Amino acid sequence: MRRRCAALAVPLPEQGEPAARVVQALARNADPGIVASGGPRFFGFVIGGSVPAALAADWLTSAWDQNAGLFVLSPAAAVVEETVLGWLRELFSLPEGTGMGFVTGGQMANTTCLAAARHAVLARAGWDVAAQGLNGAPRIVVLAGDEAHVTVHGALRLLGLGDASVGKVKSDGQGRMLPDALRDALRSAEGAPVIVCAQAGNVNTGSFDPLEHGAGGRRAIGGGHPGGPSGLTAA
Ligand SMILES: Cc1ncc(COP(=O)(O)O)c(C=O)c1O
Hints:
Elements (H helix, E strand, L loop, with lengths): L18 H12 L21 H13 L10 H18 L13 H19 L4 H4 L8 E5 L4 H9 L7 E4 L9 H10 L5 E6 L20 E5 L7 E3 L1
Parallel strand pairs: 1-2, 1-3, 3-4
Antiparallel strand pairs: 4-5
Helix pairs in contact: 4-6
The chain binds pyridoxal-5'-phosphate.
């Protein structure tokens, strides 16, 4: 397979080239190494970026080239974001004051949500993680199903919590956390800042963790579908 992509691996050019020629070479030389993930019989991963509506939206996004960081830089992008927040609040009965932001994918969704949850549970324990960092912070217990997506663990590493912070909760044949196992895990973590990572859409089976039996009370709970740029955290 690597040999088929050999034409892409060119030495660093000494001279610039016309942009059209570079784009043509890219299209031609990448072709033998492209995986046709957009086909209806592609069952490998959850990819949908080239279905017609997604592709059209992607083209618009690239052509508009907006900086969506501030309202003044792209009022349209800000209004789209506010509108989606309204929809999500309605769909999931989220409380007044809920915030939302688009991120680049599943990894960043889980990372962002876990960062928010880390901030919230530590604030309740009297620790300002933004100001004080993690050195000397109360130890956080993260509860996740034993089928939690790999990006949850990646996020925990990035956020300085690490694999050792995770208490694995036994799940059923569909990859859902068992409510009794979750309850037991919460009981044993009593007194510690706790984050529950609940999956809304197991990547293999589509099953949902039992959010209704979730953390309740003074804890943070997060969920999301790792195959799409979605994540949700609730404190
Ligand atoms: C192994 C792996 N890594 C990362 C991701 C998330 O990718 P992204 O952050 O690009 O959405 C997925 C999605 O399911 C995955 O299966």
